[in-house]
Structure formats: structure tokens, C-alpha cells
Amino acid sequence: MLHVIAEIVLESVLQDLGVAPAESDGKAAPQSTSPIGIMVDASSDSARREQCIIFARLVVRGEVATRFLGIKELANGDAASYLKVIWELIDELKVDRNRVFWLGTDGAGPMIGQHAGLGALMRRVIPFLLSNHCIDHRLVAFCVFVSLCACCVVLSAWFCSVNSRCVCGSL
Question: 98 in helix, strand or coil?
């Protein structure tokens, strides 16, 4: 039953991505050329295996939508491993790599490194790629920072972020 549901969901995602299956007469169906964004994050499962979760941001029927693309196991946590699993998944789904125009990641070094980060590696293939530290990850980092230092709430977390350290000196 789970496999049937997964196939139905995958079919819907492929339709939203504009990746049509081959026609019944064997001819290739027309593919979408609309741009897509990729959001990437990592986690470890209960066996402590590093995994990469990949989403697509795209416009579906005039609305911005997020679609789950997959979870892939990483060989290790470096940018090259992320790039390999992203391209593998994009190729598996038969999405043209040239449609990718944006990359959203967390703020980890392998993701945002200027020369060897994931965005930098992807720009070697897609020179116009926009890459940024996802606003959701920034919000989580801010909330953790504020929860660790109560004086920041009173004295303004903005002041702390501008000065790169807490006004009380505890962080």
C-alpha cells in the first residue's frame, strides 16, 4: 500500500516539475523549462548515517510551491558529497539541470563556503545560480542564540548581532 501511495505522490511531483512520462507511442513528451529552486538540508538517522533531504521550490499553477524530491544518503558531509546526491536525484527525476536557478541551504561551511561550498561547486555548472543561507535556518540560529542569553532579549538581540557577541560577554 505504501508503495502505491509513493508512486501516486511521485507522479504528482513529476507533473508539477513538468517532467512528463513518454507518450504511449514512445515519443518523448515535451518538458517544462520553467526555473526551479533547490533547498537542501542534512540530518542523521538513528544509525547515525548522514542523509541529505532535497526539496524543490517552483511555481505551480501560478502559486509558489515546495515539493519534496527525496532523501539520499551522504558518503560524508562535504560539499562534493552533497553535489553528487543532488545531481543524482535531479538526473533520476529527469529534470534538466539548467532549470536550477537557486539554492537554499543552512549556514554550514560545506554549504556556503565561498570557494569550495555547495553553492560554489554548483556555480561551476550553473554560473547564474543564486545561493543563500535559508531564512528559516537563520531564524532557528537566532532563536537558539536568544534562548542561551536572556540579557539579549532585554538589551536587544539586534545589538548583539551587530557586535557579533553578547553585550553581557557570556557568548
Answer: helix
Cell 548583539 -> residue: 160
4: helix, coil or strand?
helix
Q: Please give the Cα distance from 135 to 73 (Å, whole number).
A: 25
Specify whether the CB–CB gap between 54 and 90 falls below 8 A: no
The pTM of this model reads 0.68
Alpha helices, H only, the chain: 2-17, 79-92, 109-112, 118-123, 135-148, 150-155, 157-162
* 128: its cell numbers: 547564474
Q: Is the pLDDT of residue 154 over 60?
A: no
130-145, pLDDT tens digit by residue? 887 766 666 666 666 6
